[in-house]
Structures are given as C-alpha cells and as structure tokens.
Structure to design on (560 residues):
C-alpha cells in the first residue's frame, strides 16, 4: 500500500472538517471551509496547505501527463500524434496563442501564487507549530516556488518575479531579467536546503529533501551556464552520501523502482479516493496493449544510441543494419520499445506486413491480429516509449499511480561532469561521475578513459545525457543550452522504414544528431512531419497572448 503525503492531505481535510462541526460553527466564516482570513490557525492547517502545493506543482498541460513526460515529444527525439499545441511547438509553427505554453505559464503562476499565500500567512501559526514543522513548511513552499521559477525561466526567459500576494492594483507587472530570477532561485534553494531533512519515511515520503533543493539548484545553474554553482551544488548532493544508482535501469521507471535510492524527488500519485493519478501509460502504450501510442520516439533517437563497444553505429564493427537492435547500449531497449521485443505481454512488431503477433497474456501464447501493424493509429514512427509503462496499470491505464521522477542521482552526476568540463577542471572526479552512470550493472557500457580534451569530453557528456535521460523532460533545455536547436529541430522528422529497415547507419555528429542524407533507402523512411526552427525566435516560447493583452507592462518575447 502506498504511503505518502497525499494520505496526509486526506487526514488533514478530516481535521478541518471535524473542527467545523463544533457547536457554534454558524458564527464562523464560510461554511465551505476556512477563508483566507481565518486559514492557518494551527499546525495541521499549515501542513495541509503545504501538501496541497505538491499536488498543484505536478499539473499536466496535455493528456493528463506531467510536463516532464510530455515535453520531449516536442523535440527531435519525440512526437505527439495528436494535432496538439505540443505538436505545433515541435513543428515550429506555434504562436502566442499556443495552449501548451499558455497552460504551463498559467499553472506555474497558480503554483507560485499558492506558495506566496502560504509564505505570507504561515507566521500566523508560528507560535502554534513546532519549530521543526514550521521551518520545514516554510522551506518546502520556497522550494516549490523556486522549482517552478526554474523551468519558467528555462522556457520563457525573462518572467515576472512575484514573491508575495498581489493586490488587484498591483496586477500590472513587468518581466524581471532572467539573470535576476535565476539569482533568486539559487539563493532560495541554498537557504531552504538547511531546513529540509535528508530523507523522509511513512506519510512524509514525497516531500522535498535537502538533496532535492541542492539538485534543483545544480540543474538551474547548469541550464544558465553558471558552471561553478552547478558543480558545487552537484558535489554537495554527492557528498550527502544518501543517493546511489539503481542497479536495474529499466526497473527504475516502474513500480518496483519507486523506493530506489537513486530518486531524489518524485511527484507522488495515489489512486485512493482518486486523490491524484496520471494517464501516461494510456498515451504511451502500444495498440495491442490497448493504448493510444500518441507520444512516440523518433528513428533518430533509436539510431544515436551507440553499440556496446561505445562507438556510434556509423563507426562500430558491431553494428549490423539487418539486425540493428543487437549489440546496442542496453538503455536503448530500456527507453524505447523496439520491434521484436515484448511489450505489455505482446510481441511488438511494426513491420506493416506483420499481420499477426504473439499474445503472451494467455497460456499457451496465442496468435492475434497485430494492431501495431494494421491499426491506422498505431505508432507512426514504428516505436513506443517504454519508461513509465508498467503491467500493474493494465486494469486502469488512465489512472496510474506510478510516481514520476523529477530529479534523480544520475542527472546530478552528469550535471557535475558537464560543469567540471566547462570550467576546464576535467579531473578524475568528472570521469568517475560519468562512468558511474555508464557502468551501472544493467548498462555496463565501456568506461570513458582519461586523457580526453575538453571538446571530446563535452561531446561525450552531451550524448550521455541523451542515452540516460531521454523521455524525462530535459531534451529541450539541453538543445537550448548547447545552442544546437536550429540544427536538431529543422528538417524531416523520421519514423522507421515501414516494410524494412534503414539500409545503412546514418552519420552521427558530435552532439548526437543523426544525418540521413547518405542513407541509400532514405526515401523509404516515413516522414512524419517537416520541421522548422527560427533561431531568432524559438529559443524562447511566446508569452501567452492573453497575458500581454491584460498586462500592458508584459512585453512579448522577440518575433512572436
């Protein structure tokens, strides 16, 4: 049975409802619950309010999927089949009315407003709460606010920095320079880390820990090229000696891996009383598994994973175009559902002539119509995502309670390795960090040997982030930080050859981007869409049009 902070939300609601049943309740403020004026009369209400912040922070702007599990499908490594606002961002034809960007902006500021409400009012109960709970609650609210500003600046650049509740006459507010918002985020995370515990148990599982604050600080610093801050914060997480890599990479994104010491912070989900769930499996699953297959990986992602000798497929003697998934980095199969593998207890095959497949849900296995080849809405690319799809959700694919990782130790190690290299401090600790990620038992890729130049190591760590973190929400930020988005996000977005295989390996460049121009049967590859990227515009999302219309001080981002 799951035990996490959502159970505390239910219990805390009981505390408030119980209090409202006392004699004389008609003399109190609103019958529907505590008002702004009377809320925060005791410690239980403070805890309830903070717990609510976690729930709201995990909002879903598209198809009931948290942001980090949908956003990669608007980059070079993934695609959203639905005619959605995310698809428009990936294609490069979005404008200031784009609803994916709008909903992230709107929900982010709702979370920020709720955090500000808590922080403006928690002093009402300072003398009625234990110092530990009071300090923790304050730091949790600051953490969630800082976490939210971190990705707002990543997506939109300069944004309004609001740190307290606003009155109506204060609603016209200009943008704050991104650098100043980042300064604020780094300072907040540094300060709140001290009041957050190293770890939590029981009903407190899911709260932000000291490691979470330091890890988000490291991520924020990295994405803003503040290399020294990034390396320092990542090293602080490493020095906590609390986290370690999960031996089984694939299990990390399943119910079996939810309690792994690799997970630093995750959104918590709970089916009980429909407290909070997500629909990720339904969007990612194959048609045989009765899913929609509407968020799918690209052919280019499949092709950039190296062979087990560590070489790109255009360089390795181990690569066989007739057997392209053999001898590959195991993380390819843990991340992407490959033709010939088993997925949700069905044989997964997307060759258009494969009209029947094996159903392993029966004993003995039976042959059934292969919906992944014959259904008009089967995966358009020929592949599916495997992360966050677990057989335990078979009964109800639209209400998964599988926790969704927001930051894990492998990312921290890769932040450290990248930051150290960019500081021109390429020492053994940087090699150790990247090699820990590459050499967990279920991956066991060759170690990166010392003696690399800064440029060589930069290329290696960039590719490593893709192999390790694909479909976890980092690709857009990475492409922007590395200033390669105009190359990655331009041209044909490919799926597999529908009745065959790619005849030869594409050329893989130093950033892990695939070039198919010399592939003999390129014309047979399925062109899912043709993309464009305006480097003078698309490194930032547009400020939602509604916001600029109602707030005259809010200036639109360039060229929207």
């Amino acid at each position: 049975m799951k035990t996490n902070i959502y159970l505390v939300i239910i219990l805390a609601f009981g505390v408030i409802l119980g209090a409202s049943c006392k004699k004389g309740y008609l003399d109190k403020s609103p019958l529907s619950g505590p008002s702004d004026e009377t809320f925060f009369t005791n410690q239980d209400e403070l805890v309830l309010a903070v717990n609510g912040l976690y729930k709201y922070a995990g909002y879903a702007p598209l198809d009931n999927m948290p942001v980090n599990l949908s956003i990669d499908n608007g980059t070079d490594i993934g695609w959203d089949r639905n005619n959605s606002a995310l698809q428009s961002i990936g294609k490069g034809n979005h404008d200031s009315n784009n609803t994916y960007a709008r909903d992230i902006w709107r929900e982010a500021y709702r979370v920020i407003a709720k955090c500000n409400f808590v922080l403006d009012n928690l002093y009402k109960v300072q003398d009625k709460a234990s110092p530990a709970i009071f300090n923790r609650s304050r730091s949790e609210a600051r953490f969630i606010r800082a976490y939210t500003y971190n990705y707002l600046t990543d997506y939109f650049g300069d944004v309004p920095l609001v740190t307290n509740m606003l009155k109506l006459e204060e609603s016209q507010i200009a943008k704050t320079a991104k650098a100043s918002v980042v300064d604020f985020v780094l300072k907040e995370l540094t300060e709140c880390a001290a009041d957050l515990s190293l770890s939590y148990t029981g009903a407190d599982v899911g709260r932000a820990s000291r490691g979470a604050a330091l890890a988000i600080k490291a991520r924020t610093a990295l994405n803003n090229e503040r290399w020294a801050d990034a390396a320092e914060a990542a090293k602080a997480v490493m020095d906590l000696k609390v986290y370690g890599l999960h031996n089984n990479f694939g299990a990390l994104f399943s119910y079996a891996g939810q309690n792994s010491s690799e997970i630093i912070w995750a959104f918590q989900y709970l089916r009980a009383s429909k407290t909070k769930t997500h629909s990720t499996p339904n969007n990612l699953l194959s048609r045989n598994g009765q899913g929609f297959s509407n968020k799918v990986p690209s052919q280019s992602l499949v092709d950039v994973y190296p062979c087990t000798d560590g070489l790109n497929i255009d360089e390795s003697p181990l690569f066989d175009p007739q057997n392209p998934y053999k001898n590959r980095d195991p993380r390819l199969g843990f991340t992407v559902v490959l033709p010939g593998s088993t997925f949700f207890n069905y044989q997964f095959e997307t060759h258009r002539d494969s009209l029947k497949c094996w159903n392993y849900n029966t004993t003995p296995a039976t042959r059934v119509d292969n919906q992944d080849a014959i259904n008009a809405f089967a995966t358009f690319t020929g592949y599916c995502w495997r992360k966050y799809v677990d057989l335990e959700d078979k009964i109800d694919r639209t209400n998964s309670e599988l926790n969704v990782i927001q930051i894990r130790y492998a990312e921290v190690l890769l932040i450290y390795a990248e930051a150290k290299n960019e500081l021109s401090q390429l020492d053994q600790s940087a090699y150790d960090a990247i090699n820990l990620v590459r050499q967990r038992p279920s991956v066991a890729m060759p170690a990166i040997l010392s003696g690399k130049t800064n440029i060589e190591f930069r290329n290696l760590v960039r590719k490593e982030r893709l192999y390790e973190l694909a479909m976890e929400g980092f690709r857009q930020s990475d492409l922007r930080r590395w200033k390669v988005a105009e190359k990655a996000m331009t041209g044909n977005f490919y799926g597999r050859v529908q009745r065959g295989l790619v005849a030869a390996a594409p050329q893989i460049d130093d950033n892990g981007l695939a070039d198919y121009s010399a592939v003999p049967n390129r014309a047979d590859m399925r062109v899912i869409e043709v993309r464009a990227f305006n480097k003078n515009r698309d490194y930032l999302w547009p400020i939602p049009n509604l916001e600029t219309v109602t707030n005259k001080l809010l200036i639109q981002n360039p060229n929207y």
User: Anything to note?
Assistant: The radius of gyration is 24 Å. Residues 7-33 have pLDDT under 50 and may be disordered.
